[in-house]
Amino acid sequence: xxxxxxxxxxxxxxxxxxxxxxxxxxxxxxxxxxxxxxxxxxxxxxxxxxxxxxxxxxxxxxxxxxxxxxxxxxxxxxxxxxxxxxxxxxxxxxxxxxxxxxxxxxxxxxxxxxxxxxxxxxxxxxxxxxxxxxxxxxxxxxxxxxxxxxxxxxxxxxxxxxxxxxxxxxxxxxxxxxxxxxxxxxxxxxxxxxxxxxxxxxxxxxxxxx
Length: 210
Known about the structure:
CATH architecture: Up-down Bundle
Distance between the termini: 29 Å
CATH superfamily: YP_001051499.1 domain like
Helix content: 55-70%
Largest sheet: none
Strand content: under 5%
InterPro entries: YP001051499.1-like_dom_sf (IPR023381)
Number of domains: 1
Structural class: mainly alpha
Shape: globular
CATH topology: YP_001051499.1 fold like
Number of strands: 0
Protein name: DUF416 family protein
Radius of gyration: 17 Å
Number of helices: 9
């Protein structure tokens, strides 16, 4: 799956601040998908506090509060965050788990959003979108693999296409909210409503026993 052309064209019409909001939209959903994926560890049951997770959560929260408060992020802050992120081994981002690709997507999405704040290149936001689509594709594909019995290749492709179409719809809706000058609270409410819990995926998976 690739980034939809209509999404890219619509993104190009946004202001720099609105593009930042869209990047945050992608980052929070990638992080939320990773955290909520039922095949990963449950963070609240970790024996020891996970400082990597605390760092990631703290950076995302800082980016969110800066946007809502209309505060410019200083280059020194961006560089400091980037150095901290680069020191994290992505395969241990949230703890001991096998989902290295998803963990890397979380890390990379934040780095790209920080790069956008520093360099203002739209390509960094497009990369965030690509990472979000890749995360959804990885999670849905793995779930389909885990319930493989009786599901044809065509059925799997249909499910993936369904999620891809829904994702484009969500992205375009958020862009339209940005273009209509929705408030920060409205934008954050939309983001939080679309973190996409795994149960929402499971409801659309074909049941091989039916």
